[in-house]
Amino acid sequence: METSLEIVVRPTEIDVNGHVNNAKFVEYLEWGREEWYEHNGLPYDRLDALGAQTVTVNVNVNYRKECRQGDRLIVVTRPGRLGRTSFALHQEVRKKDGTLAADAVITLVTIDPSARKPRPVPAELAAALSADDTPSGE
Question: 96 burial class (0-12, 13-18, 19+ CB within 10 angstroms)?
Fold first, then answer.
């Protein structure tokens, strides 16, 4: 299931070049993932109760257009690939007018909180990742 989170670029997120610092985009994407988990009934405590935590192992970001202070942005998050112990989320940061500012694929691994080793993706999380509400062909 796809989620959207609207944010506003704050003055503290601007770098010496007068636009959003690249590291802040990674933070925006994290906020979008947290929104996705919450929307799907999988906040941290629920995952923990299922004996799982998710750990980001790869962040692949394409920066497309600069964003400036005061811009309203929408962080879109949707499921991607689902493996046995890992999965991917596709994310976009769009300006309010729809212009693509950044897109990313984030790969996460599900781990056992005690053993700190990979474990199979819990059924509830797999179901949320498998929910198909995207248009065909994407």
Answer: exposed
